[in-house]
Amino acid sequence: MRLFFRSHTLVCRAVLVATALAALTAAALAADEPEEKEKIAKPEDVLLRTGDDVTIAATYYAGSQKLGKQVVPVVLLHASKGTRRDLVPLALRLQQAGHAVIAPDLRGHGESTRTTQQGRDMRAADYQAMVEPAGDLETVKKFLLTKNNAGELNIEKLCLVGVEMGSVVALNWTARDWSWPELPSGKQGQDVKALVLISPEWTFRGLRINEALADPHVRQDISVMILVGRGNNKLFQESRRLHAAFEKFHLSSAPDPSSIGKQTLWLKAPQTALQGTRLLTEKSAHVDDLILQFIDLRLTKQPLAWRERKRPLD
Q1: pLDDT at 119
Q2: Rounded to whole angstroms, how far apart are CA atoms 306 and 151?
Q3: CB contact set of 257 (below 8 Å; sequence gap of 6+)
């Protein structure tokens, strides 16, 4: 009888040990399995109507659903005679990193109508209208505000990426965005927190960046990255001049690795003569990597709280 119970006990112990080993093995295998990747939303073409009755064609690349209210929104602004299609590779790369991206065809470009009077050439007033309260960028922002209020992104982390002409538009509209006062009912603007200026221009068809640079908020409250091909000396020197205009108000270098997160101004000049949209296609320049690192440091990792944003009259 004693032999029977001893054998029975040994069998039970063996079963328990085997069960525990099986559970540990299953847990280890589950830990080794890669986390299922989030499905990336397909780009969506949208038509937006400005306050001055111009149709703006744009493509929206939705951000990560998992990140939700912490998604960084990025607006991509093309060069003169370009379209939003020029920026598809960059838009997709940003979306893969979890960001929400919108790339509009600015008025008179691509699929966007020029004015309510079709067919005439663009004038200085048309370029100015891109940054006016009823214009292109305000209309794009209203679209992003609907996404913010749906909990799909955080408009407080807004980033603009401008290429050549787009950089002039970006700087001027940033000044406009920061000019809106906060009302008792809530914020109206002050949402642009970062700018990426690719082969930036100082003037374009009546648009100038001097007034924007004179704005204290643009000078000191916005993180800035300037990207230019070093091989074109004229453009490189112009970018250095722009960098110098910002430098006195920013930390432009990190003396040690622990302070890199505090740096707010960069000038990156890859060894290439390519500029603008073509600079984005130069693989050795790694421009998309530089932009992603900049957004990660100055927006993703910054404690900018999400809030619902309603228009003052709502």
Answers
A1: 45
A2: 9
A3: none
Average pLDDT of the segment spanning 67-96? 97
Q: Average pLDDT in the 129-137 region?
A: 96
* Cα 147 to Cα 46: distance, rounded to the nearest angstrom: 13
Unique residue bearing structure tokens 């990560």? 64
State the helix-helix crossing angle for 165-177 and 136-149, rounded to 10 degrees.
60
Q: What is the DSSP letter of 286?
A: T
**Nearest by Cα to 47 from 57, 36, 39:** 57
With H, G, I as helix, E, B as strand and everything else as coil, classify residue 290: helix
Tell me if residue 48 falls in helix, strand or coil.
Answer: strand
pLDDT bracket for residue 312 (50, 70, 90) = low
3-state secondary structure of 294: helix
Residues forming beta bridges with residue 251, ordered by sequence position? none
Supply angle C-alpha 234, 237, 240, rounded to 5.
155
Strands (E), 149-300: 158-163, 192-198, 203-204, 207-208, 223-227, 265-268
Residue 142 token pair: 């209203």
DSSP state at residue 173: H
Indicate if the alpha-carbon torsion angle 213, 216, 218, 219 is positive or negative: positive
Q: What interhelical angle do 88-96 and 287-295 show, nearest 10?
A: 40
- The Cα–Cα gap between 181 and 189 comes to 7
| Residue 229 to residue 216: CA distance in whole angstroms | 28
Residue in 56, 300, 254, 19 with CA at minimum distance from that of residue 154 = 300
Angle at 231 between CA 265 and CA 267, to 5 degrees: 5
**Residue 308, C-beta contacts closer than 8 angstroms, at least 6 positions apart:** 148, 149
How far apart (Å, rounded) are the C-alpha atoms in residues 189 and 177?
A: 5
Q: Of 132, 55, 147, 133, give the one whose Cα is nearest residue 102.
A: 147
For 39, list phi and psi in degrees, rounded to 5: -70, 130
CB of 101 closer than 8 Å to CB of 61: yes
